[in-house]
Design a protein that fits this description.
The chain has 978 residues and is mostly helical. It has 46 helices and 8 strands.
């Protein structure tokens, strides 16, 4: 029963705000409003009024359920989808993945690693379709009770709902957010998203409380508005409860809100109170059929149940829903349940267990299984709780609710210890259950828990009795440890090979994983052997997923696919052979053939994630071959395939971000920025990758504050404590680049050192040469900055880079060769050698079309030419750099070119040459030598290298016609130069 309009007071401004947001949404821009307030403050009533007036064609409401660990994943969205399918006749359009949430839409597809991404895409697409053309008001109530999967789906929708007429209203109970509640961290993140606003509901004022009392017909001479306001605290629910009490307002104050709310219940008939107690054991809502079955066990059935329920509905303690009943407020349900005696609670939960168990554990639905698990747990019926939790876990797996699956499996593990014959009841071993829990934790991103479960599984599994299971557990743990960047991953995989022999169906997957780990560890020959073995066994057994995996790893090894092994983030080392030969070209084409074969395998087998990864690797390989336009086309085709497969917003970020990076390299910065802005927001790792590119783009455009914001958002998506070392490399690199471009050189060096200490950034084979060249540029700048601290950091980083350069990587791709040449140019202390490296790098970049690196090479070459006192060559190089300036030029690089232009102008207008033809720099060097300084000390004083000092001193001695330093100083004095 909806309250009358006359009782709606104090919330008109809030209602106007909601209606205004709905009107904005109707114009074609999705909006979200968070309605936040304490329990009983009027959130539900406000939303009801909003739904009656919303200027949008459709409305749907879904509520989160307070069911603890055994809660039903995606509950509010399942309710919304059921409503929209029923009311809009969209059953035919809603099949496929949505059948996971809405029974009756047909069989749900088989659960795979891509199911969650596909489900999120399907929900988003369905809601976008229902919102057109007249708009959709979508309400999610009680987010404070939401399960993790509901929260994840909500954030996905908020990030990806764009120009559709949809208004999403989400209610949150503020007083329920304890210190460790997940919403304490999530809400601020949500509020920062575009199109999201927050609407806080404060307590009613004294006048508003009086208006509420008047609307309820209770503001008579015996009602003191001040006392009513004081006792209710301005809470509308408490105001109504106080006014509903037949006793005078001035009587003894109840002990608390619970007693206050129970006053409305105490006046009801005994049978009604009994039924309310049974209903409260189910939670805030209960289906009529379930309540009827439970009540019949207490002797209240049929017409008696209807007669018992009527007073509760009339008193507005309960309200009738379409198929059952709901307490008017969650606080009321909590109060009724808390008022039950211990024996009454046990009997109520036992009655639910008996009714729900009659369905049979094999046929029980996901929601019924969750309810049965909860009620059985409440009465310590551990065997039933065990089987119900297992059934609920299977439902969570079928709906791709990974966090809930993990929580339910861990509940099963808890109950396992309390049920002596658990293995016989469930039909699986303790070790197998722990293996599943480990895999679930891995998928959910809880790597430490995943390792702990696998380790526990190994402890309880006898290798003589269950050798296959031991092998599976070792393989699972090895994969997890590899994701953590740990070297002992290989120990686990090798141990697993002793239990999973060459004919075992899981052996191809084990060999493919081993190849990946060996490659990451820089053991390239072993990695190549393992990949080839995996290929053979995968083809023999028909394991197409492992075949595609091994093909990509082999291509990575042979072709320097430095991009991705199993994610779009970070770099991998590569094995190499000589380049620049016909054999090298043939090998490059063979790598392309491998990657195209992997794409074909994945497409024909429906392996979505592997196909997307293969497209990214193909683009990365072409990038490494300096075939930038082809690489861009491959990345764009990968994006198109993501759209065709229905995963563009969950998995298409990697290909899109790679396309943006290639556009930047080609000098098409406006297109790159537009693409980055347009990219959807995907999973946390892909989103972090996108944010690192966004930050890098802001860096080269000189937008420091926006780069800082993107980096801060990166850490929210991928905190260091949960990220693997490779994942976090992008954050370190981008932070370093920001400081480098901002001129904070010593601080940039400290970031590089921190990254090296944390993840071995400068270890041989960890980072590609084209990545290390940026650190080389830092060394170059530190040397020119001068000062002991800058010199110390330059020497330290230079030594580390030299070690990395000396590491034998085998075949080096053209991009890696370019990066190596750039790094050599930055590190060379002989300016002539440095200039040769840098000008050759610029030539290679010109041929490849890489405008960004070409401009960077030329800028540094101009500076080195000045060090050589060759202003003519510096001017010529500057002209080449200036020819690259245009709309596609990064602002930071443009500023450097402008600074160099002024330097050249000053050199051209400099006074005539000194006696004997010494240049200004040569005179400065001789003057420092006259002070008794060594070459190194002269370099520190003039901000040039010791080798450059040696070159200038040799030139000066030749012009002065002398053979040593002392004579050069003496002759300079004679000429009046000192």
């Amino acid at each position: 029963m909806s309250p009358s309009l006359s009782a709606f007071v104090g919330r008109r401004p809030h209602l106007d705000r909601l209606l205004s947001e709905a009107a904005r949404a109707r114009e074609g821009a999705a909006r979200t409003t968070l309605v936040v307030g304490d329990a009983g403050i009027g959130k539900t009533r406000l939303i009801a009024e909003y739904l009656e007036r919303a200027p949008l064609g459709l409305g749907a409401v879904g509520g989160c359920l307070e069911m603890g660990t055994e809660g039903v994943a995606f509950a509010p969205f399942a309710a919304v989808l059921r409503h929209l399918v029923r009311d809009t006749g969209a059953r035919r359009a809603a099949g496929g993945e949505l059948a996971r949430l809405v029974p009756g839409l047909g069989p749900a597809p088989e659960a795979t690693e891509d199911s969650r991404a596909r489900l999120f895409e399907a929900v988003l697409t369905f809601l976008e379709g229902r919102a057109e053309p007249d708009g959709l008001s979508l309400v999610v109530e009680d987010l404070h009770w939401a399960d993790a999967s509901t929260r994840d789906l909500l954030v996905f929708l908020l990030r990806n709902l764009g120009s559709v007429p949809l208004h999403l209203v989400v209610s949150v109970r503020a007083d329920d957010l304890h210190r460790t509640h997940p919403l304490r961290r999530l809400l601020p993140e949500i509020e920062r998203l575009p199109g999201v606003g927050r609407l806080d509901l404060a307590p009613l004022t004294r006048d508003e409380v009086a208006a509420q009392a008047a609307a309820l017909g209770r503001l008579d001479s015996g009602t003191d508005p001040d006392l009513l306001h004081a006792r209710s605290g301005g809470n509308p629910l408490f105001v109504e409860s106080l006014l509903a009490d037949p006793g005078p307002l001035g009587t003894a104050l109840p002990d608390g809100p619970r007693e206050l709310l129970l006053r409305a219940v105490e006046a009801l008939p005994e049978a009604t109170r009994t039924v309310l107690g049974l209903a409260s054991a189910a939670g805030v809502r209960v289906e009529h059929d379930l309540l009827a079955a439970v009540a019949s066990g207490t002797g209240i059935g049929g017409a008696d149940l209807d007669r018992a329920l009527r007073p509760a509905v009339d008193a507005r303690v309960l309200r009738a829903t379409g198929t059952g009943y709901a307490f008017r407020h969650a606080l009321l349900a909590e109060a009724v349940y808390a008022d039950l005696l211990p024996g009454e609670r046990v009997r109520a939960h036992r009655a639910y267990v008996d009714v729900l168990a009659r369905t049979g554990s094999g046929a029980v639905s996901g929601e019924a299984a969750a309810q049965l698990a909860r009620h059985a747990h409440a009465v310590h019926d551990h065997p039933r709780a065990l089987t119900a939790a297992r059934a609920a876990a299977e439902h969570a797996e079928a709906t791709a609710a990974h966090p809930e699956l993990l929580a339910l499996l861990e509940r099963v593990l808890e109950l396992w210890e309390l049920v002596p014959d658990a293995e016989e009841i469930l039909g699986l071993t303790h070790g197998e259950l722990l293996r599943r829990a480990s895999q679930s934790a891995h998928v959910s991103g809880s790597l430490r828990r995943a390792v702990a479960h696998a380790t526990a599984g190994l402890r309880v599994t006898d290798p003589d009795t269950h050798p296959d299971l031991v092998g599976e557990l070792l393989m699972v743990r090895g994969r997890i440890r590899n994701d953590e960047g740990r070297a002992d991953a290989l120990d686990d995989l090798r141990a697993a090979s002793r239990y999973l022999d060459h004919d075992h169906p899981r052996r191809p997957a084990l060999d493919a994983t081993s190849a990946t780990v060996l490659m990451r560890l820089g053991r390239f020959d072993e990695a190549e052997h393992a990949a080839r073995v995996a290929l053979v066994s995968a083809r023999r057994t028909g394991d197409r997923a492992s075949e595609a995996d091994a093909l990509m790893t082999l291509a990575n090894l042979l072709g320097e696919v430095s991009g991705v092994v199993d994610d779009p983030i970070g770099w991998r080392p590569a094995r190499s052979r000589s380049r620049g030969t016909a054999d090298g070209d043939v090998e490059g084409e063979a790598v392309l053939a491998m990657l195209r074969r992997a794409i074909d395998l994945a497409q024909r087998s429906g392996l979505v994630r592997l196909e997307v990864r293969a497209w990214r690797n193909l683009a990365a390989h072409l990038d490494n071959e300096l075939r930038l336009e082809e690489a861009l086309r491959a990345a764009q085709r990968g994006r198109e395939r993501c759209a065709e497969l229905g995963v563009s917003r969950s998995q298409g970020v990697g290909c899109g971000a790679m396309a943006a990076a290639l556009l930047c390299a080609l000098g098409r910065l406006d297109e790159a920025e537009e693409l980055l802005d347009r990219l959807p927001h995907g999973e946390s790792r892909q989103q972090a990758y996108r944010l690192s590119l966004v930050a890098q783009h802001h860096v080269i455009q000189g937008r420091w504050e926006r780069a800082e914001e993107a980096l801060e958002e990166f850490t929210r998506f991928l905190p260091r404590e949960t990220a693997s070392p490779v994942d976090y490399l992008n954050h370190y690199y981008t932070r370093f680049a920001l400081l480098l471009f901002r001129g904070e050189l010593v601080e940039a060096a400290r970031v590089v050192e921190r990254a090296h200490d944390d993840i071995g950034m400068l270890d041989p084979g960890r980072f590609p040469f084209n990545g290390l060249s940026a650190v080389g540029n830092l060394v170059f700048r530190l040397r020119r900055a001068g000062g002991p601290e800058a010199r110390r950091w330059a020497d330290l980083l230079s030594a580390r880079l030299r070690t990395a350069l000396e590491h034998d990587r085998g075949r080096v791709s053209p991009l890696e060769a370019l990066g190596r040449r750039l790094t050599e140019g930055y590190l060379a202390e002989d300016p002539a050698e440095a200039l040769a490296h840098l000008t050759e790098a610029a030539r290679v970049c010109e041929r490849a079309g890489d405008r960004g690196l070409r401009l960077r090479s030329l800028i540094t070459a101009v500076q080195v030419a000045f060090d050589l006192d060759d202003p003519a060559r510096a001017g010529a190089l500057l002209e080449r750099a200036e020819s690259l300036l245009g709309r596609g030029t990064a602002l930071a690089l443009r500023r450097e070119v402008e600074d160099l232009r002024r330097t050249v102008a000053e050199a051209v207008s400099a006074p005539p040459a000194t006696p004997a033809g010494l240049t200004r720099r040569e005179v400065e060097v001789v003057a420092e030598v006259a002070k008794g300084a060594s070459n190194r000390e002269v370099g520190e004083a003039l901000f040039i290298s010791a080798k450059t000092v040696s070159v200038h001193l040799s030139n000066a001695m030749g012009k002065l016609g002398v053979a040593n330093r002392t004579a050069a100083v003496a002759r300079a004095r004679e000429l009046g130069l000192l």
